[in-house]
Amino acid sequence: MSAVLVIAGTDSSGGAGLTRDVATLAHFGVEARCVVTAVTAQSGTGVALAHVLPAQAVRAQLSTALAPGGVGAIKIGMLGTAATVEAVAAGLPGAPAIPMVLDPVLAASSGGELLDAGGRRALLALLLPRATLLTPNIPEAAALLGTGPARSQDEQAAQARALCALGAAAVLLKGGHAQGTAAVDCLATRAGDVHILSAPRSAARRRGTGCTLASGVAAGLAAGLPLLAACERAKRHVTALLQASP
């Protein structure tokens, strides 16, 4: 059984971060290996503290997590600073590359910056070109591109293609922040393919859906699913969680 290596921060409330990642991988029957990048104290109302671990500690965790082999996919979440981004980029395995899902965690859904300006520049330069899939939401895509948020499905597709042009092999631009009766995600690939993934929009709000989706895709890739199938399965899982929420 292939494992998924998760590189992310903790969330004291359990609503997002490594807790959600591990729970998602367990749901899909995939082993998790974890690299902790930061410890956060947060809840649904905000981030009280975000303590980023030293880059040396991140690099050591990454090295020992990869050493036994058997990692079928990598999922990257919160990184915090440029130094952490650089440590992760330096510690990632070279060719043959392991599929990598990069969730650009820029801020908490409840408020609070989780990746500084230097970290964003480093992410674009060092990790984006190595990503099998980038999974930004609408505000994150706009921030990475330095433009306004997408206001239509066509603009979502255009921004997803623009992020592919920056180096990602594929981009799943999530539409949870948009309006309408359907939650529409746009999957674009560097080859020029565009796929629309749609599900009924839920009235429920739940933290950690971005972590859940990215980890779900990584679980699918580790199991050998094609990218589109992995994205579709992960989206169905998130939709089911939202529908089950009060």
Brief characterization of the structure:
By secondary structure, the chain is an alpha/beta fold. The chain is 39% helix and 24% strand.
Can you offer a commentary on this structure?
This protein is α/β, with parallel strands linked by helices and 246 residues long. The protein is 39% helix and 24% strand. It has 8 helices and 9 strands. It has helices at residues 18-27, 55-66, 82-91, 117-127, 138-145, 153-165, 209-222, 227-244; strands at residues 3-11, 31-43, 46-52, 71-76, 100-102, 133-134, 170-173, 182-189, 194-200. A 6-stranded mixed beta sheet has the order 3-2-1-4-5-6. Strand 5, helix 4 and strand 6 form a beta-alpha-beta unit. The termini are far apart. The mean pLDDT is 91.
Work out the number of β strands.
9
Arithmetic mean pLDDT: 91
User: What class would the helix/strand composition place it in?
Assistant: alpha/beta
As a percent range, the share of strand residues is 15-25%
Q: Catalogue the unreliable spans.
A: none
Strand arrangement within the widest β-sheet reads 3-2-1-4-5-6
Q: Largest sheet, described in full?
A: 6 strands, mixed
Topology pattern, helix = H, strand = E = EHEEHEHEHEHHEEEHH
